């Protein structure tokens, strides 16, 4: 099976439409709250917990796909620098469905 992924782009929250800026901030806050051991990076389990908070039907699948998109250095963690790609991936999947 072959998977194709779009090239990640750097996201600037100011470039997003006003309607998505609140969602972006909320998703970022959700994932940061899932950093259980507070080491400043997200493990696969912590990302999966974030997708659970977003009420994903398949949080393990979403976490796996998110890591393929966001974990650029391949260390198995989403660092602060890679968090924007995780949030962007999530926004593309949950556009208009984020509730405070």
Automatic annotation (TrEMBL):
The keyword Cytoplasm does not apply. Residues 22-57, 62-93 form the EF-hand domain. Gene3D superfamilies: EF-hand (1.10.238.10). GO terms for molecular function: calcium ion binding. Pfam families: EF-hand_1, EF-hand_6. Signal peptide: none annotated. This is EF-hand domain-containing protein. It comes from Theobroma cacao (Cacao).
